[in-house]
Amino acid sequence: MTAEFHSIARWQQDHDFSKENIGGERSTKLVLALTVITMLAEIIAGTVYGSMALLADGWHMGTHAAAFMLTLFAYAYARKNATNPRFAFGTGKVSVLGGFTSAVALGLVALVMAVESVLRLLSPEQIHFNQAILVAVIGLTVNIISVFLLKDHHSHEHGHHHEHHDHQGHDDHNLKAAYFHVMADALTSLLAIGALLAGKYMGANWLDPIMGIVGAIIISRWAWGLIRQTSPILLDASAEPSYVRQLVQRIEVEGDHKVTDVHVWKVSADHHAAMISLVSHQPKDTDYYHDLLADFGQIDHLTVEVNRCDNCADATQPRNSCNGHGCCHADDHDHDHDHDHDHDHAHHRH
Question: Where is the Cation efflux protein transmembrane domain (predicted)?
Fold first, then answer.
């Protein structure tokens, strides 16, 4: 490295916005082991004793075991590729993708529950109450244990290696999806116990499929909520318009500065990147814009493109150039830029 570039690190930014949730991953492994053991016990017992209720719940537990394996795969993949340069901003979105996929699976579970409940409501079947209640109690017990194993980790984990003063924890959509799976199973078991007891002692057999429909509706709402949280991140949706406006106003209040293009989007569950293009008669150095935007703490990766306006004397210039009135015109957020200008890149320090 030549002498003139000895301090180049000053302008380099961290591009790894992945984060580990070691406690959540460990708890998910415990929940997976507990779920698989219960699944095998129910399938074996259902086969030996001829109980369809045990068999059905055993295979149902299998669907949740598959969801937990997806959660663990996402953790392992993100960790393995954390420093892979092919991921422009690290593997922070792997957790989001895992959460989205599990949310879709959870929605399918709710759909199957709803269809099966409607069919049983239209064509009632004989219910073996004692066996069904036993299965529901076993399922509820397992899922209560699982909920307690996951609940302390599904929203916050402070042990990751990045330290951003504006992030007091982080959303782990991958673990949140696993948490919703055990919550869904616990809710199903709880509703089933109530319905089965009412059916056994009060003859209200119709309550069982009704509770199945209620559970399906609640679970589908959880799934939809998680899909709404994760899909905008996966699709690089822009930050809130009010936040972007504040960012633009902070720059344009500086004399003849005009923002010609701005993008602010999430590169992980909690980290934002921003790209800003501006034009001015008297542009400042990049440190100036860094300091100007220093209190926009949500931005973890900032790039500023600075264009000097040198055509003020010619009023015939197009609108993306200067006119003769001492200000720069630009079509709002025009994406066609003249890249003959010198570009400076401001980097956000933490």
Answer: 30-235
